[in-house]
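Collaborator request, handled under Task 6.
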Amino acid sequence: MKKFLLMALFFVPVGPSECWALAPDEIAVIANASSSDSMAVANDYCVKRNVPPSHIISIKMSLNERVSRKEYEDSYVGAIREKLIRPEMAGIKCLVTVYGVPLRIARFVPSGDLGRQKKLIEQLLDERFAELKELSSNLNAFSEGGVAPSADMKTFRMPRYKLGRGKEAVTLYRQATEAFTAAAKALSRMGTSGLGIEEKVKKMTEMSILWYGLQGRYQALEQHYKKQGATGTKKAVQLEMEAVKATLLQGIGRLKEISGDTNDWTTLKERFDLIYQIAGLQVICHPNHSEGLVSRRANIGDDDSESAFDSELALVLWDQYPLNDQQPNPMLVFKKKGFPVLPADRENARTFMVSRLDGPTPKIALELIERAIAAERMPIKGTAYIDARGIYTATEKIGSYGYYDDKLRKLARLIEKETALKVVENNVDSLFAVGECPDTVLYCGWYSLRNYIDSFTYNLGAIGYHIASFEAETLGRDKKKPDSNVWCKRMLEKGVTATLGATSEPYLHSFPRPDELMGELMGGKYCLVECFYRTLPFTSWRIILIGDPLYKPRYARARGFRPAM
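C-alpha cells returned to the collaborator:
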C-alpha cells in the first residue's frame, strides 16, 4: 500500500538545513474537533506560545488512541494535507498533536486479492519450510549412515511476524545448506562402487532434486554424461537429459507467460509451484531471493506497518514509500554507518517535525505547556540520573545492548563535563529503587518493560527518557489499559516536562542515542523538537516526542557546550 506525494511547485521544501531555529509562526497544531478538551489544549498552546490561531487544524477524529490504517488514510490524511498545502501554511516546519488526537495507527490489513495472496503465501511458507526441515533431517541421516527421523510436517508453522519469520528462514536455510554439503562429501567418500552404492546414489539424487530442482538435475546429468564412454549407459543418460530439458523448457515458458500476472493471486500458486519445480527448495525457501516465498511475503506490505500517528504525520505530504518499514529521517544530523540512506529525490521532500501535548488527562497536557514556559525562566538545576546496566560487550554494533549501554555511560561523562548538574550513575543490572532519585531534572536509563519504577521526584523542567519497547503504547486514554504502568504515561502523571517513547516494538537501533539527544539539549542552541529530530533515526515508525516542541531548557553549566552543526 502506498500514499501519494504532492510535489507541487508552489511547495516550500523543508530540508535538513532549513529546519532549525523554530519560531511560533512555523508551528501548526493538529486538534480533534470531536473533543472540546482537545480544542481547549490547542487554543491554550496558541495563546501561551504566540502560535497564530489560524494555524489550528481541527478535524473530526476517533476518540480512541488507536485507529486503523484505512481510517487514517481515508479520513485524516486528505483533510490535514489540504490545510497544509495552503499558501499561508508554506512556512510550517512543525506539527503539534494535542490531547484527543489518536496515538497509534494499526497495521495495514490486506484485503481482496492481496489478502488472498497473503493467505496463500503463508500456507506455502509452512509447507515448503516443513519440507526443508525434513530434507535437512534426511541429509544428516545420509551423512551419518543412519535412518532419518520423521519430521512432523502437519504441525510446522512459520512465524507470522517479520522478525521471527526472517530469523527462522535464515536458520532453516543455513541448516539445509550445511546438511547438503556434508551429504555430498559423504557420498564422495563412498566412491563409485560397493555394497548399496546404487541405492545411496539414487537417494542422494532424489534429495538433490528437492534442493536444486530440475535445473540441478539437468546439470548433474550433464556432468554424468560427459564422464561416460560410448556405452548404453551414456545413451540412457542422454535420453533422461532430453526429458528433463523438455520439462524445464515447458516450465520456463509457462513462467514467462504468467510473469505479468504475479499480483493475481489465482496464478500465484502456479508461479510458486513452477519455481519450486525448476529451482527447488534452494530458491523457493531462500531468505532473500526475490522469487522466494520470504521476499514475496514481505512484499505484501503489512509487516511492521503499525506506526505512531505522529511519526506518520511527519510524512503526510510524501508519496511512494512502503508502509512495512521505517523511513530514514531527512533531518537526522548524526548519520550512522549501515543505516538506510534516504533516496536523493526525497532529501528535499517536505517533512515535518512533530511533537505531542498529551497525557492521561487534559489537565496534564496543559501542564506540559506551563512547565516548559516556567522552566525556561531560570537555569535548570538538580540531579541527572543515568541508569546503565553494566554491559561492556562489543559496542561498535549499533542496536546492540552493549552499544546503547556504553552511550548511557558516555552521557553521564558528558553531563559531568559540560554542566553543573549533579550526576548519579547506576551501572549495574538492577534499576534505581523506589524513592531513590530526588531532585530529578534529567533521567535516562533502561530496561524495565511496561513497568515504571517510582524512583523519581521530578523538578520543574525535568526530562525523562526510558529506553524500552511499548512505553508510549498508551498515554492513559485507552479504556482497555486503564492501569497501564508504561513509562511515558507514568512519568507524565508524576510531573515530567518532556519525555519520549515507543508506541510499539521499535527495535533498539531506532531510538535516538541518549548522548546525542541530551547533548544537543544541553547545547542550548536548539529547542526540544529540533534536538529530537536531529537525533531520531527514522520516521514513519514508532518513536514519539511528548512535550512542548519549543521548550529550550537552560542547564547550569561548568562551561559552554557546542551542539553538532
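The cover message to the collaborator said: "The mean pLDDT is 88. The longest strand covers residues 456-466. Please let us know whether this matches your experimental observations."
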